[in-house]
Amino acid sequence: MNSGEFERATAMIEQTLAADGRFAEGRQVELANWLGMGANWRLIGRLLPSHTNSLFTGGWLNSLVHGRPADAEGGMLPWLSYSAINFIEGVVRADWRVFEWGSGTSTAWWDSRVEHIHAIEHERQYHDQVAAFGLANLTLRLCEASEDYVGAIDSAAGGPFDAIIIDGEAPAHLKSGGILIFDDSDRAAHRDSLVHLRDGGLKRIDFFGLGPSFLYRKCTSVILSDDAILTLAALPSEKRSCLGPTISQAMGE
Q: Which of 38, 100, 218, 232 is spaced 20 to 30 Å from 84 by Cα?
C-alpha cells in the first residue's frame, strides 16, 4: 500500500483473510479502506465519461491514500460531509473571520478562503502539526485545560465571527447572517445540543452523505442565525467546487 501497489496489496489482504479471519481484528476500517483503494479504478474510470468519476475528482480516493481529507491534487479539505463542504464553499466570503474549536486540515482549508481564522487546540500534537503548516491568516492557541478550551472564544480577538466550528456557547459570538458548523451531528450524544440551538430560534440544514477518508455516511449540520446567507449561493450550473465538476460541467454543457 505504501508503495502504491494497491491491486497487489489487495490480493495479499484477500489471501490473508481467507487463511486467518483474526487478521482483521482491530483494523477492520483500515483494511476496508485499503480494499477500496485496490479496486480496478483505472478500468472503472475508462468506462465512465471523462472527469465524471467523483471518487477521483472529489478526492475521496486520494483521501484514502493520504489517510486524511484531501482533494484530487492532495490539497487539504475539512473533515465534513462532502455535501456540507459543497454548500459552505458556496457562501464563504474573503472578508470572513472564523473561529474553530479543534484544528487540522480544515484550518488550512479555511485559511486560504477567509480574512482570518482563530483556532483553538487542546492537544499539543495537533497544535504543533497545524503550526508547522505556516498558515498566513491563522491565530492558533493551545488550551490544554478543558475550561480554557471551552471558554476560549470569550477572549478571542476579532469576534463576533462569520463562521464558528462548534461549541454550545457559540451563538452569542455569531454575527447576524453567520453560520455555525456542527459536524457529526447525527451522533446521539449531540442531540441535546441541537435541541438547545433549535429552541433558541436558530435554523438548521442537515447535510448527509459520504465524507473524506471513510466509507460510511455521516451528517454535518449548518446552523443559521437567519436565512439571508442562502441568497449568496451560486446557481448550481454556475458553481465551481474544490470537489470537482458535476457531470453536466464535465460534459461541457
A: 38
3-state secondary structure 42-82: HHHHHHCCCCCCHHHHCCHHHHHHHCCCECCCCCECCCCCH
Give residues with Cβ within 8 angstroms of 38, minimum separation 6: 6, 7, 9, 10, 11, 13
Q: What is the mean pLDDT of each run of 10 residues along the chain (253 residues)?
A: 88 94 90 89 90 92 91 94 95 95 94 95 93 95 86 84 76 83 92 90 94 91 88 82 91 88
Phi, psi of 44 (to 5 degrees): -60, -45
Which triple of cell numbers denotes residue 49?
465519461
3-state secondary structure 90-143: HHCCCCCEEEEECCCHHHHHHHCCCCEEEEEECCHHHHHHHHCCCCCCEEEEEC
Task: Please choose, from the candidates 93, 14, 6, the residue with its C-alpha nearest in 3D space to the C-alpha of residue 44.
Answer: 6
Q: What share of the chain is helix, strand, coil (3-state, %, to 5)?
A: 40, 20, 40
User: Measured between alpha carbons, how far apart are the two ends of the chain, in Å?
Assistant: 38
pTM of the model: 0.88
